[in-house]
């Protein structure tokens, strides 16, 4: 593995009595694409969201590019600026145009001059295939287009790592591939990515590593080829048996 960019050590998280992450130890290398899969309630989304402290955790440590994740305040905001996040529901600002959505972070957080931010935003919108929609508002775009704008918005901050929390699960089936195609391209270009997804075809195509979670624990991790053809644990065999036979 290349030099680790994200390092999680003994991370534990509870919701009340529910122990949702149990002693998570995970290293993600620079330029690596890691797919988190597992049954509902296994802790995948929680794990993804702890990486930029959208979810707090009680024990353990997380470092990004050698810096420990701060608890709060400006240091956390600065670190979050280096971690792109793409959610299930696109989370675009409804009252701002597509272009304004993409330039907002660079202008406000990175203090990029407006003209420069707009030029870069247009390049990114071009890259995800929605440059012709720049003057429109989110409600005027399809779900797949909105999600591609959300990816462009994350990329505009030049993040060191991008987190995707089930980015296609709110989309109609015919829109899923247009978002996954953008993600496959990013993976090929060397973007470090952590992706929670149910899209096994994408996992096979884009991931360097599949991390399988169940009951808040990492049960096994392997290359996609190895995991899908020869899972080691009964839990993974059972899970794959259920999803791959449909």
UniProtKB/TrEMBL annotation:
Family matches, as Gene3D superfamilies: P-loop containing nucleotide triphosphate hydrolases
InterPro entries on file: AAA+_ATPase (IPR003593), ABC_ATPase_HisP-typ (IPR030679), ABC_transporter-like_ATP-bd (IPR003439), ABC_transporter-like_CS (IPR017871), MetN_ABC_transporter-like (IPR050086), P-loop_NTPase (IPR027417)
Domain ABC transporter: 6-240
Topology in membrane: Peripheral membrane protein
Subcellular location, principal: membrane
Enzyme Commission number(s): 7.4.2.1
Annotated keywords: Amino-acid transport, ATP-binding, Cell membrane, Membrane, Nucleotide-binding, Transport
Top-tier EC class: translocase
Catalytic reaction equation(s): a polar amino acid(out) + ATP + H2O = a polar amino acid(in) + ADP + phosphate + H(+)
Domain of life the protein comes from: Bacteria
CC annotations in GO: plasma membrane
Subcellular locations according to the entry: Cell membrane
Pfam families reported in the protein's UniProt record: ABC_tran
PROSITE patterns documented for this protein: ABC_TRANSPORTER_1, ABC_TRANSPORTER_2
Molecular function via GO: ATP binding; ATP hydrolysis activity; ATPase-coupled polar amino acid-transporter activity
Similarity field: Belongs to the ABC transporter superfamily.
Protein name from the UniProt record: ABC-type polar-amino-acid transporter
Lineage of the species this protein comes from: Bacteria, Bacillati, Actinomycetota, Actinomycetes, Micrococcales
């Amino acid at each position: 593995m290349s030099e680790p960019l994200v390092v999680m050590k003994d991370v534990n998280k509870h919701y009340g009595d529910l122990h949702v992450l149990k002693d998570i130890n995970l290293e993600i290398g620079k330029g690596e694409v890691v797919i988190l899969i597992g049954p509902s309630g296994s802790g995948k989304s929680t794990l993804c969201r702890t990486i930029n402290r959208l979810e707090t955790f009680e024990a353990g440590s997380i470092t990004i590019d050698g810096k420990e994740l701060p608890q709060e305040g400006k240091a956390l905001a600065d670190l979050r600026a280096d971690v792109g996040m793409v959610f299930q529901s696109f989370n675009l600002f409804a009252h701002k145009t597509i272009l304004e959505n993409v330039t907002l972070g660079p202008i406000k957080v990175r203090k990029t001059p407006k003209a420069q931010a707009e030029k870069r935003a247009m390049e990114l919108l071009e890259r995800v295939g929605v440059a012709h929609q720049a003057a429109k508002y989110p409600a005027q775009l399809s779900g797949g287009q909105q999600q591609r704008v959300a990816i462009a918005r994350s990329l505009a901050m030049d993040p060191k790592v991008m987190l995707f929390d089930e980015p296609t699960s709110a989309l109609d089936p015919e829109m899923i591939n247009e978002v996954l195609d953008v993600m496959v391209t990013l993976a090929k270009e060397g973007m470090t990515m952590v992706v929670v997804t149910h899209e096994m075809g994408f996992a096979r195509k884009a991931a360097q590593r599949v991390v399988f979670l169940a009951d808040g624990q990492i049960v096994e991790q392997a290359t996609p080829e190895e995991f899908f053809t020869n899972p080691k644990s009964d839990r993974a065999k059972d899970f794959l048996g259920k999803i791959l036979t449909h």
